[in-house]
Structure formats: C-alpha cells, structure tokens
Design goal:
Elements (H helix, E strand, L loop, with lengths): L1 E3 L3 H18 L1 H17 L1 E3 L8 E2 L4 E9 L2 E7 L7 E3 L4 E2 L2 E5 L16 E5 L4 E5 L6 E4 L6 E2 L4 E6 L3 E5 L16 E2 L5 E3 L7
Antiparallel strand pairs: 1-2, 3-16, 4-5, 4-15, 5-14, 6-13, 7-12, 8-9, 9-10, 10-14, 11-13
Helix pairs in contact: 1-2
Length: 201
C-alpha cells in the first residue's frame, strides 16, 4: 500500500484546485496544473517497506553517493533524485538521543560541497542518520524526537523536494563490511547496507 507524507496536500491542493477553472478558460493551462498536482502527489508517495530479517538497511531510496571513512567510523550516503521516494527510514533499531538541526548552504546534494548544507542529524548513540537538504530542497521534516525508541525500517521523516540521507555506521563496522557500492540503487528500509547476524543466530 502506498500513502503520502504529512503535508503533501499543502503543495498538491493549489494546482489541483486551480486546474478545473483553468481548464474552462485555457485547457493547456488547466492540464498543466493537473499534471503538476498529480506529480506532487507522486513525489510525496510513501509506500510500505518490509525490512529483511537482519542487517543494517539503507536510510533512503536512491543511489549510493557516499562511502567513506570518517575517523574510526564509516559513512554511507544515498542521493535521492526527483523520482525517488523521499521518506527516510531507520537503518537499525535504536533509541533517539537527540535530533539537531544545523543551518547551512543549499549546494547540489550529489556534490562534495553538500556536506555543508542545511541538515538534521538524528543521533542514536551507536549510529546517526542525517537528512541533508539540496539546492532545491529547503524543507526537512523529522518525525521523531529525543527519547523515542525506533524500530529498524520505521519512518524517521522526509525531505520535501530533496536530496540526501546518510547513515554514520556503528564503530564496529569497517569499510570492508559495507555491502553496497557507489552508484548502486537502494531501497529505504529494505536494502542491506551492512550484514549482521539474524536475531536467532
């Protein structure tokens, strides 16, 4: 089943409501507004995901754009283009220690400069998920707050019209443990980024 993210209709309703009267006056304009409204609804779609039995999963739906070591930790980033689902999901079970918003620039999310973009960091202590805005994405909407427990694959929030989501993996993960590669397409909450033993092993 596919739903839509909270706040979808604030973007989709105006062109959809204007489409009917506009069609009477100028059919091409009305059609364009209708297609725009439907495109917004499609953009903010929120399909159900089924996490695998084990493993740390991708936080976002898109293309892997970052795999790098940061000190003794490993970061994996996923770039979302306009056709990807923009709902961010928890890579692993965890307890939210803090949710911090950091102002910044609005560089293209696929560039190295995007590390300095506006972002929201969800810190689980053992790992961290970052929502990173892009040049067009100016709205980051976290659904969780400090003190909440989150299950693997659960929704953490979404980015309106954007852009990149990273997971800073636990300290025990080495870069050789990463099960995806740059340029690979992944699905939020389903594609395994790092293999872990099943719960009953």
């Amino acid at each position: 089943m596919t739903g839509v993210t909270p706040g979808t209709w604030r973007y989709a309703a105006p062109p959809l409501l204007l489409a009917v009267p506009a069609t009477v006056v100028a059919f091409p304009v009305g059609l364009a507004l209708l297609l725009l409204g439907l495109g917004v609804v499609a953009f903010f779609r929120d399909p159900e995901r089924t996490p695998p039995e084990s493993g740390i999963v991708a936080p976002a739906h898109g293309k892997v754009s970052v795999i790098r070591e940061e000190g003794e930790r490993v970061r994996v980033g996923v770039f979302m283009n306009v056709t990807d689902v923009h709902v961010i999901r928890a890579p692993a079970d965890g307890y939210v220690e803090s949710v911090d918003r950091r102002p910044g620039a609005y560089k293209p999310a696929f560039s190295k400069d995007s590390d300095r973009n506006e972002r929201v960091d969800v810190d689980f202590g053992t790992h961290e998920v970052s929502f990173i805005a892009g040049w067009f994405a100016r709205r980051i909407h976290p659904y969780v707050g400090g003190g909440e427990s989150v299950a693997r694959g659960e929704r953490l929030g979404h980015i309106a019209f954007g852009s990149r989501a990273d997971v800073l993996l636990p300290e025990w993960v080495d870069i050789e443990d990463v099960a995806v590669e740059n340029g690979q397409r992944v699905r939020a909450g389903e594609t395994v980024v790092v293999e872990t033993p099943a719960a009953d092993d």
